[in-house]
Amino acid sequence: MSANTERMRSYRRAAVTLLVVAALYEASARSGYFAPALLPTLPTIGRTLFAMLLDGSMLGHALYTFYRVMFGFGLAIVVALPLGILMGRFRTVEGFFLPLASALMPVPSLAWVPVFILWFGLGNTTTVLVVFYAATFPMLLNTWSGVRSVNPLWLRAAGTMGADENAMFWKVIIPGASPFIITGMRQAFLRAWIAVVGAEMIAASNWGLGWVIFDAKEFLNTDIMLASLAVIGFIGFVFERLVFGSLERATIQRWGMVRAAKS
Amino acid sequence: MTLRDAVTAETARADVALATPARGIGDRLRSAALTAYPFVVVGAMWEIVAHLGIFPPRLFPTLEEVAATFVRLTVMGILPHHALETLARLSAGFALAAVAGVVIGIAMGRSRRAEDIFLPLVSIIAPIPGIAYAPLFLLWFGLGNFATVLLVGFASSFAVIINTWTGVKAVKEIWVRSAQSMGADNRRLFRLVILPGALPYIFTGLRLGMAQAWRILVVVEMLAGVQWGLGWMIFGAREFLNTDVMLAGVAVIGIIGLVLEKHVFQRLEDYTVVRWGMMEQ
Amino acid sequence: MPHIEIRDVSLIYDTPSGSVPGVQGVSFSIEPSEFLCIVGPSGCGKSTLLNIIAGFLMPTGGEIRIGGKIITGHGMDRGVVFQDFAQLFPWRTALANVTFGLEMKGISKAEREKIALEQLRLVKLDKFVRSYPHHLSGGMQQRVAIARALAYNPSVLLMDEPFAALDALTRDEMQRLLADVWRETKKTVIYVTHNVAEAVYLADRVVVMTPHPGTVKTEIPIRLARPRDPLSVEFLEHQKELLRHLGGEAGKA
Ligand SMILES: Nc1ncnc2c1ncn2[C@@H]1O[C@H](COP(=O)(O)OP(=O)(O)O)[C@@H](O)[C@H]1O
Ligand SMILES: [Mg+2]
């Protein structure tokens, strides 16, 4: 069989799977066997999503979440990127921060939420700090390993070609470490995205995708929950594919430092 | 999370300064001191701030208080009780994820049909943070242990599925051909070649799954209205401004997380894939 | 009757970007206990042809008979050695790699370890039976692979550039060892290489292939006494003749 017909068959099967699952869901929702509040039909979910998009409330929740995640994530990069580079370059910095990072990293970021609530109250500060905590360590450790793993031959080659410390840093170390740095950003965003949803459930008030899901539970608004889940999945997907995907394509993939993902 | 990231995620390991081999006793003491000194510095700063009374002592307890609370709760058996309940939930949830994940992952790697059926579902469900499903699970399955264990298993199974699937597909064609030319039938090919060949990936999946299970369990305990559990303990302590209890709980959570991440699969791996040279220590 | 007959074998690869011919209309035959080398420029289809003979690929045209019977897939009458060192199972020791085929045959543990030890002695590795592959050098790994392919006693040994990734010194040593092993075991060998000196050193007969899409250009018998001296005038003459056939093709392409 040719590769093309095989691929077509895969697509067909995938489509069939999704249709079957959707149909099964719809059938159970309509069977009257479960409470409609717990298992809304697909059209109901669609209508809810559409209504929330139209009245702007979904956009509001998404923007709040996005603001918190970007704030925390940006803070993590601002702190962890320079620190990671310093750790990779200087033994004394490494000797001080590495044990601390290794001790703090295994604590799940969301375990801090109750503590932060006491310290900073419910709301943005707590959520942003939890996101920061979640994103910092992947960023820090990847940057550190990236700088340490820069091929010494490149450093030597650059040295013989007359590169000074400054040029060495900007023209060799940073690009050389960039596969790790970009991986670090991806992982950091992933963690941040999980952290923001969790933190909003516990610590946010009135706005945010995590909050809206959690709040919907109180009123048995399962349709709102599922609609918000779809939006969360969509934003995560877009970020992953468009933002980090194109960042990778523009840099390390173009330089042949990582193989493109096999599709 | 794309599928590829689940595989490569967390490859950057924090090789702790502790790991440097020390020869003599003097060397060992020196390296212990080197590891300890950042903690001493940070601890001293904490103590200064706490004793100066800049923040209310209830919210910013001294380290002595936290340590005393830790000892008190341990001696009273409260902390061990919370920890054991949490670990029991973790084991149940993770066992669910490990079994389901390995079975589905192998099916996907071995059968085109299974791959076509599961891959679209996995690619849609996996990228959404597991915690986002928590309210849904609590609504559908009620507050309590059942929903908690189910959610932990559900959320951590994807790392296992994706890695196992990748591992089975990454088994070298040349091994399969060698085994076939030596007369291996399909069953023995699977047991003697595909399974050991995919093992490094399966272990990676189990490690990642375990870490995820731990992260999500702690939060779900805060939401699920369970009576015992470390997550519940720190969440409940918030009501009474017991910051010392919370910090003691966070420390225990961190220590268990560290042990789970570093040591649970270490021996299994050392005995198999590391010994075979398929994975570095 | 020849041991193996290859009749008008062709294979077309079906890729997403269209059909690619792998080999085209290849015919030749091999006598029992003959050492046959297939030489050709890289990409001409040598590996494809060997994989067809091994039964891993089905030809899109033509047929292959072994002992008069048309082959339909892989079988225990053929042992295969690849170029890639990674062909050994990393989770099995050298000995356990060699016993694999015997295990599949259902031979008892004691018996199969005895046979495997003999095979490992034949390739001069009896000191390393308990080692895992990653502790062995490339040359040693390839020797384990040869022992493994011989252990379950197939009548045919198929080898795809098994020494191409080794350094020159080790390669010479391995060629001598293989010649000895062949003299002792009297297997029918089909050996793929792009190295002309290697072919002249090892082969009773050399099949020269044209560049992509490969077909048989000519066959050259090598009637030199063994063990062969790579510095002798006759050896160099044969080498030159082979190079002329290959070079002519390269010139045209
Ligand atoms: N799996 C494959 N799919 C598509 N084309 C292939 C495949 N394997 C080999 N080819 C093509 O078939 C031709 C012969 O390849 P091969 O048999 O590997 O050559 P050789 O071993 O002589 O170097 C080459 O042009 C190669 O590109
Ligand atoms: Mg080849």
Commentary on this structure:
The complex is a heterotrimer of chains A (263), B (281) and C (253). By secondary structure, chain A is mainly alpha-helical. Chain A contains 10 helices and no strands. Mean pLDDT of chain A is 86; it is low at 259-263. Chain B is mainly α and 281 residues long. Chain B has 2 domains: 1-54; 63-274, MetI-like (MetI-like fold, Orthogonal Bundle). Chain B contains 12 helices and no strands. With 253 residues, chain C is an alpha/beta fold. In chain C, the strands form 2 sheets. Chain C has a 6-stranded mixed β-sheet, sandwiched between helices. In chain C, strands 2-1-4-5 form a 4-stranded antiparallel β-sheet, with helices on one face. The model of chain C has no long low-confidence stretch (mean pLDDT 91). Chains in contact: A-B, A-C, B-C. Chain B binds chain C through residues 172, 174-175, 177-185, 188, 192-193, 196-197, 199, 272-273, 275-278, and chain C through 54-56, 74-76, 78-80, 82, 84, 86-87, 89-91, 100-101, 104-105, 132-135, 148-149, 152. Adenosine-5'-diphosphate is lined by residues 13, 15, 20, 22, 40, 42-48, 212 of chain C.
Defining traits:
heterotrimer, A: 263 residues, mainly alpha, MetI-like fold, 0% strand, flat, disordered C terminus, C: 253 residues, alpha/beta, 6-stranded mixed beta sheet, 4-stranded antiparallel beta sheet, 7 helices, 10 strands, globular, binds adenosine-5'-diphosphate, binds magnesium ion
How would you summarize this macromolecular structure in one to three sentences?
Chain A has helices at residues 3-30, 42-54, 57-89, 91-104, 113-120, 124-148, 152-160, 165-203, 209-218, 222-250. Chain A has 263 residues and is an all-alpha fold. Chain C is an alpha/beta fold and 253 residues long.
